[in-house]
Amino acid sequence: MNNNMKKAYDYEAILDYCKSGGKSDQHLTKLQEDLKALRTLIYNCQTSYHGIGTDSSVYKAYNKVFYHIGEVNDNGSGTPHGLWYNAYGVKTLFNMMYYNASKDKEQDNDDSILYGGYR
Amino acid sequence: MISKYDSMFWDDAEAKARKAANGTYTTWSYDSDRALNDFTKAKEKIEDIKQDIAEIGNDFSNLKALYEEFTGYNESMDNAFSQLNQSVEAVSSYMNQVFNDALEDVNARAQEDKALVTEIGRLSEMLSNTVEND
Fold first, then answer.
1. Which domain does B38 fall in, by range?
2. Residue A118 forms part of a structural domain
3. A49 contact residues in B (CB cutoff 8 A)
4. In chain A, whose CA is at the least distance from the CA of B54?
């Protein structure tokens, strides 16, 4: 934390970490790319190996895999769930941290102007 | 003036998409030229996702350290990390069930189709690697 910061944490570091293109963004982006790729790969697996209709054990297992990969919207039935929904929660957390750190920085800047840089 | 909201990348269309297994197949099928390759790629991708989640766990640890006296997000970060891990373990578990079903099916049908006999060994080897990795 530099000497001008009034808050008891390094909001510049939070901003840098959680900004678009920052480390958290890179990791969340990679997770999304891998989740998208996994869906395609599971479809490929089912094309290669499948049972008949919807009664087979393997159909039910594939369906559970898709369920736990998940989705954010309920699309009118059920609730959001699975990895996509969990990833959305992570994105929301990172964005909240970024937002609050930016507000704290702004507040400090405003106070510095108001008090002539001394407080 | 800084921006209060610097949006991270988010694939909204993919996140909102509802995907399900194909339930319209009218015949059993095991494509021995492709299945093992497809299974292996899916297994590797699940491991990639576990690594992605571990990286996000590191992000949370780093952010907790940066916040120090501010612990308002700690519980939310712990819950998010726990839920990610639970979901990927469920994906891994059900995919292992697919592999086990394949082994069982191929084993049963190899009695009639000798071309499938070699698949039993290959599938068994992949499955034993899966168990070891888990």
1. 31-133
2. no
3. 29-31, 35, 38-39, 98, 102, 105
4. A27
B16 inside domain: no
Tell me if A119 is assigned to some domain.
no
Q: Does B20 reach chain A within 8 Å, measured CB to CB? A: yes
Answer yes or no: is B35 within a domain: yes
User: What residue of B is the nearest CA neighbor of A102?
Assistant: B4
Contact residues for B77 (Cβ-Cβ < 8 A; gap 6+):
A93, B60, B63, B64
Its ipTM equals 0.90
pTM of the model: 0.89
Pairwise CB contact (< 8 Å): A44 & B91: no
Lookup: tokens for A103:
């507000």
CA distance A103 to A91: 18
Structural domain count of chain A: 1
Task: Tell me the residue range of the domain where A34 lies.
Answer: 11-113
* pLDDT interval class at B58 (50, 70, 90): very high
- Cβ-Cβ pairs closer than 8 A, A with B, add up to 229
Residues of A within 8 A of B103 (CB-CB) are none
Burial A90-103 (b: 16+ CB within 10 A, else e): bbebbbebbbbbbe
Could you read off the pLDDT of B78-102 as tens digits, one per residue? 999 999 999 999 999 999 999 999 9
